[in-house]
Design goal:
Length: 418
């Protein structure tokens, strides 16, 4: 079982290119199924969740060629309509293939998706929305047997929660449906905008992506296209957190600062100097970070739940006490116990976590509990005196391309031990 050996206390500085967004590239790959054509998806991150998505497409009969970070996806031929349980369990995004497969084949057999264990992670919004569009779903023995008579039909869908995945599933299913679909209370994340941009390039007619109401007018046919995945805003927040906790100064290249609209002010409040231009973020953190006011996770454009663990690691060495309120997932504090092994003083009460900052963390064996929780313990280890062992690296490779090599290029001392 491989692990990182991280020697803390090294200041990070230099330039880092932010790779393509995991949470955009995954629904984009599912959406290629609608085109029965060839698409080139550029700037794909080389991460294991994408490998899982490629395996699903290949299982369905599609051809995929990889040229660096570009995936050439040929979905002209589909030879089956099911996704095996072991593939469904590999990640959360597998559920977003449902809308694409039923739109193309009018039937599909899947089980429940996997992904980080952040709580129940139900799919009721996905299922109820697609049922409103005419999908019939029979659940038996943990399997969803889905079919429609003819095509999916446009519908007026009001989401009880602005679910990212459900918004994506509906957009994909509605692109070739009969008639118009309106999503109210839609998710507004940048990844939704990126998916709509790809689909519109393929000939879809989607308006309002990025707002709370999205209107999709179904069309007869879609064709392939070339599309570049947006930068990963959570990876950007990860490197900013690493800079802050090591009192470093780094330049993030190929990033969209507007996608971090509610994250950048937090770094400024803790005392970092942050400047931006259209594709860069410059962050410099000279002294010990100051505790910030309460961080409440919210749907975009609020503070992203995926950055909560990252900022908690930084606040564990802040001057003062900070409060986190996790409003999106019911169990997203597993990293708190791991940070506590490094000496962090964190009290968790339900969805509230109180972090009393200490001067410096101390090395200890810790493990990644999930993708972003794992990134948080690595950020903590960059500050901890001594050598910290981090295990559970499979979680990390799901969403970060070459994380330790990139951190070492910035001045970290991380050894990968097999
Ligand atoms: C996406 O997950 C992201 N994953 C998550 O990132 C991210 O944390 C989340 O959006 C919120 O921004 C991908 O895009 C692959 P949701 P998703 O549907 O779509 C509840 C990471 O670290 N809900 O917006 O699953 C759900 O339980 C990952 O990169 C229902 O109740 O998120 C949660 O409490 C972690 N029923 C809330 O909504 C449903 O049918 C938000 O979920 C669907 C969701």
């Amino acid at each position: 079982m491989s692990k990182y050996i991280i020697e803390g206390g090294h200041k990070l500085s230099g330039e880092v290119k932010v790779h393509g967004a995991k949470n955009s590239s995954l629904p984009l790959l599912a959406a290629t199924l609608l085109t029965a054509d060839i698409s080139a998806i550029e700037n794909c991150p080389q991460i294991t969740d994408l490998d899982a998505a490629k395996r699903i497409l290949q299982h369905l009969g599609c051809e995929i060629k990889q040229e660096g970070n570009t995936l050439i996806v040929d979905t002209s031929v589909i030879t089956c309509d099911d996704i095996p349980d072991e593939l469904m369990r590999e990640m959360r995004s597998s559920i977003v293939f449902l809308g694409a497969i039923v739109s193309r084949l009018h039937q599909c057999k899947i089980s429940f998706p996997g992904g980080c264990e952040l709580g129940a992670r139900p799919i009721d919004l996905h299922v109820s929305s697609l049922q409103q569009m005419g999908l019939k779903i029979e659940e038996q023995h943990g399997c969803l047997d889905c079919f429609i008579d003819g095509k999916l039909k446009g519908a007026n869908i009001a989401l009880s929660f602005p679910s990212v995945g459900a918004t994506e599933n509906i957009m994909i299913a509605a692109a070739l449906a009969d008639g118009e679909t309106t999503i109210t209370n839609a998710a507004r994340e940048p990844e939704i905008v990126d998916l709509a941009a790809y689909l519109n390039k393929c000939g879809a007619r989607i308006k309002g992506a990025g707002e709370s109401t999205i209107v999709i007018s179904g069309v007869e046919k879609l064709h392939g296209c070339t599309h570049r995945v947006i930068p990963d805003r959570i990876v950007a927040a990860t490197f900013m957190s690493a800079a802050a906790i090591t009192r470093g100064d780094i330049v993030l290249i190929d990033v969209n600062p507007r996608d971090l609209i509610s994250v950048i002010p937090i770094f400024e409040e803790m005392g970092c100097a942050v400047t931006t231009d259209s594709s860069h973020i410059y962050i410099r953190c000279d002294g010990r970070p100051k505790a910030v006011r309460t961080i409440r996770t919210m749907p975009y454009p609020g503070f992203p739940t995926d950055s909560q663990a990252l900022l908690m690691a930084v606040m564990s060495v802040a001057d003062g006490t900070s409060v986190f309120v996790e409003n999106i997932f019911e169990n997203r504090y597993k990293h708190a116990a791991e940070l506590a092994r490094l000496g962090a003083k964190i009290k968790v009460e339900g969805k509230v976590a109180i972090v009393e900052g200490i001067e410096q963390l101390l090395s200890a064996p810790v493990r990644a509990t999930d993708l972003r929780g794992g990134a948080a313990v690595i950020i903590g280890a960059l500050n901890a005196i001594g050598k910290t062992e981090v295990s559970g690296l499979a979680h990390i490779s799901r969403g970060y391309q070459n994380l330790h090599e990139t951190l070492n290029e910035l001045g970290a001392q991380i050894l990968l031990e097999d």
